[in-house]
Design goal:
CATH topology of the largest domain in chain A: Molybdenum Cofactor Biosythetic Enzyme, Chain A
Largest interface: A-B, 115 and 115 residues
Radius of gyration of chain A: 33 Å
CATH superfamily of the largest domain in chain A: MoaB/Mog-like domain
CATH class of the largest domain in chain A: Alpha Beta
Number of domains of chain A: 4
CATH architecture of the largest domain in chain A: 3-Layer(aba) Sandwich
Strand order of the largest sheet of chain A: 7-4-6-5-9-8
Helix content of chain A: 10-25%
Largest sheet of chain A: 6 strands, mixed
Distance between the termini of chain A: 47 Å
Oligomer: homodimer
């Protein structure tokens, strides 16, 4: 027995506080996952503007036209020839009324004025608009101009907003209403946007039951399918199917084959630990999977693989571990691929001391208020209800065992 | 003529820099719009968890069960009776293997151990788990326990995360993956969420053409339909229809009647100014509309009405004016009704001086970088392409005509 007991990689009695040499650093596993997922070939698709809000441009969009499209009036008022109103008051006959409407207005002759609405085309001949505020009504339908104008006053020139061929929106733009307005104003009816990654989510575990159904003794509700699906969608991916399997190799193999046939990426939860029934690990390891123990808590057991060319990212099954794993490992690369802004860590101040285990980077659940953060849950990876009350993960470094109240800590917003 | 010229509310020659008494303050119009829209009766609807991400709970949700549902193991290891391992090493026969799977395990007898997986039910009789790391294999399939355990060690008790009847998620919660995980883990399959306001968007203007189609002289592309629809959706509303009408009363009346029949709220753009063809104003004013000039730029002409009990909020038609009007007047109340977090103004530093007109609160388009802001567009309300490059509106107070570089200014994020 004692030879087993003292073997270097025995599971027995690791001296307290010493990092197991076999554990991988969190940052290294972040890179492993990012490299795998970054290799996925992303596509783009054309969508009408009405469906483009919140999507990300796959290419720069240039304006096909000058904006404004034509010389138009900045004000409700009168189109005039500026040299006709150098001396005021000046009474001019009103020879036309020009609305913002289809059609080209008649040429404005010398010594005349045309009533004009905001946005309406400035008639040829006219070179200035007199705002209605600076006019009064004259006799016989004429207008009295009360203020001189310079040539060009209150006239919007074509191309003064954007010129044909100029960039309206760069590639990688998360399309907001203001971008859609610019595209629409330029006459663009649809836009090339990044296609979301197609993802299949597999939850493994003989004990899992769909929420809303009765549970038998020993069963628990499957929280990972809905939580990981929502997290993937939030990160710009499209969940095309969710599958749930028991802890037996054959059903998991069937689910996996189906998943890699239709997805760009497969995300699994459960079955990657060191227990006796670790179906994900048991099926993926012979396929060359990278099964590893990451030096973090929760979420230590992790696994990545490529099956039929499709990356498979496997998280542990505890709901808290799965969510933390997603936020730490998968969210950054998915958001980058989707063109979404990164979620950056924020430095805040602890309201109360925290303890942590040596040798593992710990992600405690916390709530921020102003520039400070409070821990809202114990460290247990089963505390899924407690995690609902959190809005961030405190990032407690591997080598830290205690932080005092008032200490600065980085948090990862959820 | 001079009596007209000098009449108190004449449109002629208002002295430069003096606020027209008839103009309404921005904050007052914000209140007018908020009061009208807040009166809309909001409903809730039940959606399955898979469709609840990003929705807002209409009521608090309590857990119908204890979580964990049953006593289960926190580790892969061996279930024991703590008093059997007070002296170690202790060799115990392994009488069962308990997986995380349906079914109740057999009672553990004195002096025995059961191999147990993380999450699996702790057998009756056992009161502690020995993690596998603190065990070695014994003779004849027995286990050698290398470390003593206290009663309760590594056992997750029912209700230690949440108790039946306790609140899982408060009313008004914007549902994120972590909330869905907690609801799912408690067996909840669907959730009551706030129904979005049904909105019809009407764009008026004889000159408007759908993007993607050819324009004739005098026509311009309709940017407001797509931009306001996207802005409404971002603010938690549901655009049920968009209508476009020319500047004639009858078509607008038809559109309006259709809109108020199906919507909780109608938003229009165009036709509220002082020109000769102001169809929205012309139709709504006889119905008791509040047509007003707000002391701001862009977006001065504003109108609100109640038609058949439905609030109608009318913005000017210039695309920049319409977007600024939405962000200033409608977005705050819509987000509040939808349960979305408010978008708060932020104080930043100007990188370059700005000029502004006296008597009007000006919303200049800017881009933030760190704690500073730069203006990215002229003040013209037609500069829709330039606005695409902005990410915030600088809020220049009514009485300010100039701010120097380095001055602090509030910006409203877009």
């Amino acid at each position: 027995m004692s030879d087993v007991h003292h073997a270097p990689h025995s599971r027995a009695h690791p001296p307290q506080g010493i990092i197991d040499e076999g554990r991988r650093a969190v940052d290294e596993h972040i890179r492993v996952v990012a490299d795998l997922v970054s290799d996925v070939v992303t596509f783009s698709e054309r969508v009408p503007l009405g469906h483009a809000s919140g999507r990300v441009t796959a290419e720069a969009v240039v304006s096909p036209v000058d904006l404004p499209l034509f010389r138009n009036s900045q004000m409700d008022g009168f189109a005039v020839i500026a040299s006709d109103v150098t001396s005021v008051p000046a009474t001019l006959p009103v020879t036309a009324t020009i609305a913002a409407a289809p059609g080209a207005p008649e040429i404005l002759g010398p010594g005349a004025a045309a009533r004009i609405m905001t946005g309406a085309p400035v008639p040829q001949g006219a070179d200035a608009i007199v705002p209605v505020e600076y006019t009064t009504e004259g006799p016989d339908g004429s207008v009295v101009i009360e203020r001189t104008q310079q040539s060009g006053d209150y006239v919007r020139e074509p191309g003064s907003d954007v010129r044909a061929g100029d960039e309206l929106v760069p590639a990688g733009t998360l399309l907001a209403p203001r971008h859609l307005a610019a595209l629409a104003a330029s006459g663009i009816g649809d836009v090339e946007v990044v296609s979301p990654l197609r993802v299949v989510v597999i939850s493994s575990g003989a004990e899992l039951v769909e929420p809303g159904h009765p549970v038998l003794p020993g069963q628990v509700y499957d929280a990972n399918t809905v939580a990981l699906s929502a997290a993937l969608t939030e990160s710009g991916a499209r969940v095309v199917e969710t599958l749930r399997t028991v802890d037996e190799a054959e059903p998991f193999r069937v689910a996996l084959a189906r998943a890699v046939a239709e997805a760009d990426l497969v995300v699994t939860s459960g079955g990657v630990s060191k227990g006796a029934f670790e179906v994900v690990r048991d099926v993926l390891e012979p396929l060359g999977a990278d099964v590893t123990e990451v030096a973090m808590q929760p979420g230590g057991p992790q696994c990545t693989a490529i099956v039929e060319g499709v990356p498979v990212i496997s998280f542990p099954g505890n709901p808290v571990s799965a969510q933390v794993s997603f936020a730490v490992f998968l969210r950054p690369v998915l958001r980058r691929l989707a063109g979404l802004p990164p979620i950056e860590p924020v430095a805040v101040t602890l309201t109360a001391p925290v303890e942590s285990v040596a040798g593992k980077r710990q992600w405690l659940r916390g709530v921020r208020a102003g520039g400070s953060v409070s821990v809202v849950s114990g460290p247990g990876s089963h505390l899924v209800a407690a995690m609902a009350g959190a809005d961030c993960l405190l990032d407690i470094p591997e080598d830290t065992t205690r932080l005092d109240a008032g200490a600065t800590v980085e948090v990862l917003p959820l």
